[in-house]
Amino acid sequence: MEEKSGFGYFLLGLGIGVAAGILWAPRTGEETRQLIADKAGEGADYLKNRAQEGSEYVRQRTEDMRQSASDLYEKGRSTVARQKDTLNAAVEAGKQAYRDAVSDVKSATSGTGTTGANSPESV
Fold it and tell me: Is the dihedral of CA 86, 91, 95, 100 positive or negative?
């Protein structure tokens, strides 16, 4: 709080000093008014330039963020697609293993079922 009020007093003193310097300057009223108008115009131009620079900075940062978000989205999308493909391959491998196991059980069952005790070959 102390620093803020000290800075405020500094700015007040600066403003009073500038005003006093302009008022007691060895120039005519017309020259002084023209000087004030010129300086005000320079200040306005300076502020416009700074605002344009700030606007350009914000625009560039926005574009950078948009590109970064797009890159992250694409990276996530490709990762999900890759994981989906891996999962589908695993499911298909599981289905094929199941089919093979069922086929092996059927062939083992049909092979032992025909050579049982009641079959003509066992007599």
Answer: positive
Separation CA 103–CA 105 (nearest Å): 5
pTM for the full predicted model:
0.44
Task: Summarize pLDDT for 102-113 with one digit per residue, the tens.
Answer: 998 888 888 665
The model's pLDDT over 54-102, given as tens digits with 9 standing for 90+, comes to 999 999 999 999 999 999 999 999 999 999 999 999 999 999 999 999 9
Q: Which of 41, 47, 50, 40 is nearest to 18 (CA)?
A: 40
Give whole-number Cα distances, 14 to 6, 17, 43, 74, 82, in Å: 12, 5, 16, 56, 66
Cα dihedral across residues 36, 42, 43, 45: positive or negative: positive
- Which residues neighbour 32 within 8 Å (Cβ) at sequence distance 6 or greater? 22, 23, 25
